[in-house]
Design a protein that fits this description.
alpha/beta, Helicase, Ruva Protein, domain 3, about 270 residues, Rossmann fold
Length: about 270
């Protein structure tokens, strides 16, 4: 058997044509196969014999399958989350919403997450607001199963409830009550947007695309949020590149004041509505 270090080097060369992070991808796949962290891999395992099965994982990545779907894990806001092709892969840019939520409503008692997917936004907030409870809604039962598994794994199941809901239907909010904080990362990608192959071919289209301008879900959801807000409540929405003006106009027409939040790269990433 060849050493782990040599197997990683060869895998990085194989993955270079399909990934800008080929070496990192190879290391993460090897660490997953060995059942260790990447740090442990680099510190203690590089001279060990490479385990069988690594080539098969590399082949999957060479076919543009995202690393997170191969390993079934992705970190978000310092927490480990289960992911599958039923949900979008959490991105670090979305941590902007969690930071805004903890800054604006650290005393929130009820939190609603619209389009919860794997549950990362709701669960990250609940993990940092000890007294809060929340509801995550999603139109996909497969996504809700992932969210429930994450709540269980993080010890947050008593605080988090996940239920089916589609804001394009008239009765989706029946019985929900009101909330101090509403989070939403709805579909916002234009139908003809140029996306990386691994995104377009692997991540769920229903969680990505929202009409020709990427605004269909904002137009449907935002006007309904006022009735779900408790007095003094706040809504925090993720937005796509170049959408700040259009989504702000939709929110303004629905009676909200709007504040823009940028991510670490300086890109417009979220709107805070109140």
């Amino acid at each position: 058997m060849i050493p782990v270090a040599e197997a990683i080097r060869a895998a990085a060369e194989t993955l270079a044509p399909v990934s800008d992070t080929a070496r990192l991808d190879a290391e993460l796949l090897m660490a997953h196969l060995l059942g260790v962290s990447r740090s442990e891999l680099l510190l203690y395992h590089l001279r060990a014999p490479a385990p069988p099965g690594f080539a098969a994982l590399v082949a999957r990545r060479a076919g543009h399958e995202p690393v997170a779907y191969i390993t079934g894990r992705q970190e978000f806001y310092g927490l480990p989350f289960i992911v599958s092709p039923a949900v979008l892969i959490p991105r670090g840019d979305s941590e902007t919403l969690v930071e805004a939520a903890l800054e604006r409503k650290p005393d929130a008692l009820r939190v609603l997450d619209c389009g919860t997917g794997s549950g990362v936004l709701l669960l990250a907030v609940l993990a940092h607001i000890g007294k809060a409870g929340g509801v995550g809604i999603d139109a996909s039962e497969a996504a809700l199963a992932v969210a429930r598994a994450n709540a269980e794994a993080l010890g947050l199941r008593p605080q988090a409830e996940f239920r089916a809901g589609d804001w394009h239907t008239p009765d989706w909010a029946d019985g929900l009550g009101t909330f101090d904080l509403i989070l939403a990362n709805p579909p916002y990608v234009e139908a003809d947007a140029a996306l990386d192959q691994q995104v377009r071919e692997w991540e769920p289209a229903s969680a990505l695309f929202a009409g020709p301008e990427g605004l269909d879900d904002y137009r449907a959801l935002i006007p309904q949020l006022g009735a779900l807000l408790a007095p003094g409540g706040v809504v925090i929405l993720e937005i796509g590149a170049g959408q700040a003006g259009a989504v702000s106009a939709i929110a303004g027409a629905a009676g909200f004041a709007v504040e823009l939040r940028r991510d670490l790269a300086g890109r417009a990433r979220a709107l805070v509505l109140g």
